[in-house]
């Protein structure tokens, strides 16, 4: 674990992004310059409840990522005298300390870099900050990547959740809120009823399978050890601060660059969307009013197809797209995911009974989101060019286009080419040696 590095220590390059072997390495520790930073709006939810007596020190895993950063800002700024918020994040490729920079001087906010798959790091942070409440967001969250890198998804989402649960049990936690997804239910045919929390889990891709498997572990700890757990399954979330690998920010940034939208398959799958400010209010509601042992869907009625997202964004950017010729100029169909659920549809009445309902319409949320990305999308994370391509490949914080990655030499070829020696090196060890200058 380590403290936040100062901006002066950030590495060289465009906002910290370095180029190497036809790839981009993102640096989530890099800070924006103050001139840009000061212009950014401070985005939170809008709810405020009577603080809980038995909650004081709250660990938020994945706090430098999209949804959790909204929640961290909300808790820190809405409950300054009641809750201490500890953001615990590995700082993966999609994270950014810019997401919580506004909080750095706040006495009730701390950032700790750490990995949920490390039992010792989790134990240390729980003890150091006398944690009584955990909000568990940290995950590998991008479905597209889960088809190519599924071990990473199982490791983070299943094993990482297991580590947190076990350490939480040993530590004696008062409250553990686990963030899951509507994707665990699998595809819901058109015309079928919206699914309640009691529905069977039937995930269909490695991401959703890893999230469902994590839920099984949550369920086991609830039953075996009576851990005070609540599980939350949300629809798709969108809004400012989302890493531009996901469809809405990616398409905004492509249009911003006057590039074509890269639409997977026929564009017909739909998703239901919740604005980030609304999910924060939902989580705040569940935190203060939710019942242990329960599962809550966070559900919206805004069901939008991928094609429809293209149309709405082209409207906002005032780009003509009425005729098929105009549309073809701006929308390019690409290969689809190996498998793509047609739709998810969940019923939110259980959470509505606690008093939550979405306040932001899809169109209003989209306009706010476009405005934010127009101002900050190019600088917030560093060089996102490769992320904006179709099916980029991510390893750690290093990004390639699919074509670049396909053209990379195999580990064996690379080692033979670069070492000129007979010893069998792993590529990782060779990279390490090169970086340390020992091969010169
Ligand atoms: N984005 C959505 O539409 C959506 C919808 C439903 C549920 N969810 C769930 O919400 C949660 C947050 O999603 P998001 O879109 O904000 O994700 P994100 O990808 O923006 O952020 C994930 C964060 O987790 C961190 N992380 C990854 N591995 C880690 C590890 N081993 N240890 C510590 N930190 C680690 C990353 O650095 C990153 O900051 C996830 O659990 C996701 O499954 C997301």
From TrEMBL:
Molecular function per GO: dTDP-glucose 4,6-dehydratase activity
Stretches assigned to the NAD(P)-binding domain: 59-368
Q: Which SUPFAM superfamilies match?
A: NAD(P)-binding Rossmann-fold domains (SSF51735)
Q: Which cofactor does it need?
A: NAD(+)
Question: Which key words tag this protein in UniProt?
Answer: Lyase, NAD
The biological processes this protein is annotated with in GO are: nucleotide-sugar metabolic process
Q: Which domain of life is it from?
A: Eukaryota
The organism's taxonomy opens as: Eukaryota, Fungi, Dikarya, Ascomycota, Pezizomycotina
Annotated protein name in UniProt: NAD(P)-binding domain-containing protein
């Amino acid at each position: 674990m380590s403290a936040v590095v100062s901006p002066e220590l950030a590495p060289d390059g465009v906002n910290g992004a370095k180029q190497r072997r036809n790839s981009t390495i993102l640096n989530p520790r890099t800070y924006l310059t103050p001139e840009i930073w000061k212009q950014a709006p401070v985005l939170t939810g809008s709810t405020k409840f009577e603080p809980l007596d038995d909650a004081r020190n709250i660990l938020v895993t994945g706090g430098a990522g999209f949804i959790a950063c909204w929640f961290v800002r909300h808790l820190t700024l809405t409950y300054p005298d009641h809750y201490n918020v500890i953001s615990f994040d590995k700082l993966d490729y999609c994270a950014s300390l810019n997401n919580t920079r506004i909080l750095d001087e706040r006495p009730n906010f701390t950032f700790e870099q750490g990995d949920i798959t490390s039992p010792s790091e989790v134990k240390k942070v729980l003890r150091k900050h006398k944690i009584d409440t955990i909000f568990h967001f940290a995950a590998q969250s991008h479905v597209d990547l889960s088809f190519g890198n599924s071990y990473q998804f199982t490791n983070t989402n299943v094993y990482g959740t297991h580590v947190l649960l076990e350490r939480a049990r040993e530590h004696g936690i008062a409250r553990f809120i686990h963030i899951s997804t509507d994707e665990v239910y699998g595809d819901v045919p058109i015309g079928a009823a919206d699914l309640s929390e009691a529905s069977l889990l039937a995930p269909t891709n490695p991401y959703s399978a890893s999230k469902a498997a994590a839920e099984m572990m949550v369920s086991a700890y609830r039953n075996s050890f009576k851990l005070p757990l609540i599980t939350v399954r949300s629809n798709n979330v969108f809004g400012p601060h989302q890493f531009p690998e996901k469809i809405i920010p990616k398409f905004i940034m492509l249009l911003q660059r006057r590039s074509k939208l890269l639409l997977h398959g026929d564009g017909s799958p739909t998703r239901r969307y919740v604005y980030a400010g609304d999910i924060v209010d939902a989580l705040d509601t569940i935190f203060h009013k939710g019942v242990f042992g329960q599962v809550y869907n966070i559900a919206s009625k805004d069901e939008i197809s991928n094609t429809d997202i293209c149309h709405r964004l082209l409207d906002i950017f005032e780009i003509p797209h009425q005729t098929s010729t105009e549309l073809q100029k701006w929308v390019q169909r690409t290969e689809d995911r190996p498998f793509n659920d047609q739709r998810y549809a969940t019923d939110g009445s259980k959470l509505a009974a606690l008093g939550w309902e979405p306040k932001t319409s899809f169109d209003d949320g989209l306009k706010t989101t476009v405005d934010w990305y127009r101002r900050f999308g190019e600088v917030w994370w560093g060089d996102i060019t490769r992320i904006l391509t179709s099916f980029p490949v991510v390893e750690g914080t290093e990004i390639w286009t699919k074509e670049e990655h396909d053209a990379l030499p195999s580990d064996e070829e690379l080692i033979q080419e670069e070492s000129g020696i007979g010893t069998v090196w792993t590529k990782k060890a060779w990279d390490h040696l090169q970086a340390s200058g020992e091969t010169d």
